[in-house]
Write a structure and sequence with these properties.
With 681 residues, the protein is α+β, with helices and mostly antiparallel strands. 20% of the residues lie in helices and 29% in strands. It contains 14 helices and 34 strands. The strands form eight sheets. The chain has an eight-stranded parallel sheet with strand order 24-23-22-21-18-17-26-25. A hairpin with a 2-residue loop joins β9 and β10. α8 runs antiparallel to α9 and α12 runs parallel beside α13. The chain starts with 9 loop residues before the first strand and ends with a strand. The N terminus is likely disordered.
């Protein structure tokens, strides 16, 4: 029977640094002596290592002090890197989704923010108003500044930012169930200036100023590649996309289209991708994300043996260069999957450690607890999630860093356009900061994408990643479109909470996916109801950020969790859902045709029923209204725009709303895109 570990949690506000930020001390006292203790929670993306606690005086009490703004947060304690514990002495908790519970901490007088508010009543909750010159409230993107302000939700009529003695109205940006967020896009005309905010509600107004001054040339430039927001990614699991070269097949290759297992092969290769670039171009994608293509004994290739070599079952470096050049000629970018936290057990460096033990010059590249190196079944070395096939790299070792940066530079200089960073939370922040500098020196517009499954704020302040894989986007789409678990307003709250986490430079670069090699197929989770997949894809392809299609989703490929989600692509058109394919091709072409869809900010939204959501977008003189109805019956909706004429982007028809007094009929189980130019009505 496992010993019960008695957890004591104590937090105290040591000093209030400002009206919104507090210094919080966490304490934890186990009844055993652990090797390590860390604090994990919604404030650090549930990292098990980012916030290590310490017992400096050896009294058995582990502590850490962190800075938190007013708000509500979830947390747990992590013992020895992999044991997660709820605070049993804290009565505030919520389900963690894995059969346990997370503890809840409320910082500051949070209750006053959650009470009712009424627009136009002249009452402004001043304590809810907040701005800081830190991300995600303040950032420079090249020649422009993003400036964001927080207010209590539904509390004010409008807000303006005052700079150069001029007032600029701020756009409503997002909400998160407690606060509203407003944003301004400013192009400074001189290096030094100051600004303040003026908040209006009813007959009242309030000046919010805290000596906000700017020296533009001294602000760190958080540049994200401009090409991302107009990209449509296509994720390819190389072993399962297409087999065009039988000569490089593994010895035990299976019949194409057979049942995928953890360790079987079907012979997919890079020539198969090269031979089907016409298919991808016709679909409309302009960026490919490849799962690993480097030398490895597995079908997934995450257990790399040599990062400098293309796996021979896929081809060779010359073939990859031909594929890369061919893609670039077609306007298709290439992003490779990079693994930096571990290698495969068959990696040449780890093999040297197996042969030479402590005398190996690579022994310090890994964390070996004892010698000789034990079997893969009972590893005596640090490895990813205790999988003996994936020994962890010691990225604090300068030689390891040099090796990792050298292979990164090799592929970057060959011409790839970006890197997806596998399990990015497993590697330290200092490594990623150095990594970004290294990559940016080669290609200032390279896309740096971290695999983070939750809020990526910790990595998205301009010194590490451009964006993270937006699994929170997927979760919201599953709840609304696939499972029918939440109402349209709850869906809006989930979506806008994601947007509120960042500024537009990150949101435009976000990698919006519905599925991947690590998840069950979206269509399978929809119980094979293609109408639900179509609606989710409709939202994905009209949302802010870069949509990513997992290979085969567009033809109705199904599959449960890994390895079933890694089936072979079906090239026989009789086995494809051609209607779904044509629908997605149409949506992609519309996204490309109208810049307002990919570039436009949402400036207001509506949820007229529990099954219908309306999003209003604008961009450089063009407006779009996105209407989504998951109901089985039509909805009559009054459009809140003065324009008299619209174009239905899905049909190309011109629509006049004069005679109907602005009433538009949204058909059942469908999405619609209405376009109009507000400059000419």
């Amino acid at each position: 029977m496992k010993k019960q570990i008695y957890l004591i949690f104590l937090f105290s506000i040591i000093s209030i640094l400002s009206a919104k930020t507090h210094s919080i001390t966490f304490e934890y006292t186990p009844n055993v002596v652990p090797k390590s203790v860390a604090l994990a929670g919604s404030f650090n993306n549930w990292s098990s290592s980012a916030m290590p606690m310490s017992d400096d005086d050896n009294d058995g009490i582990w502590t850490i002090t962190i800075q938190l703004e007013d708000g509500e947060y979830l947390y747990k304690f992590v013992v020895n890197g992999d044991k997660w514990y709820q605070d049993l002495n804290n009565s505030l908790s919520s389900p963690d989704g894995y059969g346990g519970r997370n503890s809840i901490i409320r910082v500051g007088d949070y209750g006053k923010f959650t009470g009712p508010a009424f627009l136009g009543d002249g009452k402004i909750l001043k304590d809810a108003i907040y701005h800081t010159q830190k991300y995600p409230y303040f950032a420079r993107q090249d020649s422009m500044l993003w400036i964001k302000l927080r207010t209590k939700q539904d509390d004010i009529d409008s807000v303006a930012i005052i700079f150069y003695e001029k007032a600029q109205k701020m756009d409503w940006y997002a909400f998160d169930g407690t606060f509203d967020y407003y944003i301004a896009e400013i192009y400074p005309q001189r290096n030094n200036f100051s600004y303040k905010f003026k908040i209006y509600d009813g007959d009242s107004s309030f000046d919010y100023s805290d000596n906000f001054s700017v020296e533009f040339s001294q602000i760190y430039n958080f540049h994200t590649p401009n090409w991302i927001s107009t990209s449509i990614f296509y994720q390819i699991f190389p072993e399962r996309f297409a087999n065009a070269d039988k000569s490089n097949d593994p010895k035990d290759v299976q019949r194409w289209g057979g049942k995928p297992e953890y360790d079987n092969f079907f012979g997919g290769d890079l020539k198969g991708v090269l031979n089907h670039l016409d298919y991808l171009q016709n679909l409309g994608v302009n960026a490919i994300y490849f799962n690993p293509i480097f030398l490895s004994p597995s079908n997934h290739k995450y257990d790399m043996s040599d990062q400098m070599k293309i796996d021979p079952h896929f081809g060779d470096s010359a073939l990859f260069k031909t594929l890369l050049d061919s893609c670039h000629e077609l306007g298709i970018k290439i992003m490779l999957d990079g693994v930096y936290h571990d290698t495969g057990r068959k990696h040449w460096a780890f093999q040297d450690v197996i042969r030479n033990g402590a005398k190996s010059k690579y022994a310090n590249w890994f964390t070996i607890y004892s010698f000789p190196v034990a079997s893969i079944e009972k590893p005596n070395y640090k490895c990813w999630w205790n999988f003996g096939s994936l020994p962890s790299l010691n990225t604090d070792n300068p030689d390891v860093r040099k090796f990792l940066f050298d292979f990164t530079r090799y592929w970057m200089k060959l011409g790839i356009d970006g890197l997806r960073l596998d399990c990015a939370n497993e590697t330290g922040d200092e490594f990623w900061t150095e990594f970004r500098d290294s990559v940016r020196k080669i290609n200032p517009d390279a896309y740096i994408l971290g695999e983070i499954w939750g809020d990526g704020s910790r990595w998205l302040k301009g010194d590490m990643f451009d964006a993270v894989m937006n699994y929170r986007f997927r979760d919201a789409c599953l709840d609304f479109f696939a499972y029918d678990k939440i109402s349209s307003h709850q869906f809006a709250e989930k979506y806008f909470t994601i947007l509120a986490s960042y500024l537009p430079n990150v949101n435009f670069a976000s990698f919006n996916l519905l599925g991947s090699h690590d998840t069950p197929r979206f269509l399978t989770l929809c119980k094979n109801d293609s109408r639900k997949l179509k609606l989710a894809t409709f939202f994905q392809l009209t949302a802010i950020g870069a949509p990513s299609i997992y290979y085969g989703d567009e033809i109705g490929l199904t599959g449960d969790k890994d390895p079933d989600c890694r089936k072979c692509f079906v090239w026989d058109t009789l086995g494809q859902n051609r209607e779904l394919l044509q629908y997605i091709k149409k949506l992609i072409s519309i996204r490309k045709k109208y810049p307002v869809i990919s570039q436009g900010n949402i400036y207001k939204f509506d949820t007229p029923t529990d099954d219908c959501i309306i999003l209003y977008k604008k961009y450089r003189g063009q407006n779009a209204i996105i209407l989504i109805n998951r109901e089985d019956s039509e909805i009559l909706y009054k459009i809140d725009e003065p324009a008299k004429y619209f174009e239905d982007a899905m049909t190309g028809q011109k629509i006049s709303l004069e005679k109907s007094d602005g009433i538009y009929n949204i058909p059942a189980n469908i999405g619609r895109i209405l376009i109009f130019n507000h400059r000419n009505g």
